[in-house]
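User: Here's a chain of 425 residues. Predict its fold as tokens.
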Amino acid sequence: MAERRTPNRKLLGVVIAAAVTIMATGAALLTSGTAQAATTAGCGKTPTLRDGSYTIQSGGRARTYLLRLPGNYSSSQAYRLVVGLHWLNGSANDVVGNGFYGLQQRAANSAIFIAPQGLDAGWANTGGRDVTLVDDILRTVENDLCVDTSQRFALGFSYGGAMSYALACARPTVFRAVAPIAGANLSGCASAAQPVAYFGIHGTRDSVLNISQGRSLRDSFVRANGCTAQNPPEPAANSGTHITTNYSGCRAGYPVRWAAHDGDHVPLPTDRNASSSWVSAEVWQFFTSLGSTTPSSPGPSSPGPSDPVPSASSSSPPGPSSCRVSSKVNAWGSGLTADITVTNTGSAAVNGWSVAFTLAPGQAVTSGWNATYAPSSGRVVATNVAYNAVVAPGASVSFGFQATHTGNSGAPTAYTLNGATCTSA
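Assistant: Prediction complete.
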């Protein structure tokens, strides 16, 4: 007869406590960074990668990339990941040198940055070799570092812009958004049938890659994202300005934004009399406004069967069913202030908001309160700050700005809240 053993209650208690600790640690990792973030194998590991240059075998040959980590990197936090791509005859060092098109400083230690090096200082992507390179880099980096897989982004200038477009086509469930600057279809496009958030930037006087080529890239994702087709306004010749347009009707979570500037083939254009480019502020605002979404189907191929890059998580970006706006403008001489109140008239709370509105011609925002603003003219997007991100059903949020004007001091028009059109109070 088998002997019946009495459980060791003390040992059982230790085992249960350990299991609870492990589950709690796992939950903390999975919810760090972005809510319900899908995280990588590097989360919780002691990292071996540091800032520096690395060589990797990809497609049977040695390829290189530069890596930059947040100064306070912690393996218990899931970070955004940004791939910065150089231009023809440029280099990964050039991308690092310009701060990944100004985004590294904007990120304030909230993102991991990667700059791959193209063969022959370009991105021909012959046989998909450069897409494979990015796959291999992501696999290596994410096995060692903690990344929120719903927050991967890519951008580049000229040939680098073309390569960021190719990544959007080939890896729509890997990259959350891309921002080609003065790009064209030079690196191929496996398919633009699946949606990817898209921000195209191009100069109306581009003498290297005509703006029509940039419009073509944009329009492929206008279609893929289900946006309403339009011919967005572009600045007049010699105006020294830029105009940013947010497309309407896009599939929830997959916006398309287009910025045309009165300039030539440059990576970081500036408006007339401005001391710095507007590009980094607008691109970073676009990237960070995006929540995670459920991919509609797998991409054309996974980065590798032995260690695939995880898919995006299943949470959806916030957005109310309806909203109401009231505004008050006080004008003088060549200036004005505008006070805006947005009420969430939907049935669900908004956790993170972006209010878009159109300024009257000749108006330009110079400063603001209770929100961040980009760009300064045309179609402006005001984004919440940390202390006012949540707007409960029936509650309101107030913010405002100061602007200059050239005679038209009219109130902003055409308000939307996270893409939903608002009514006027």
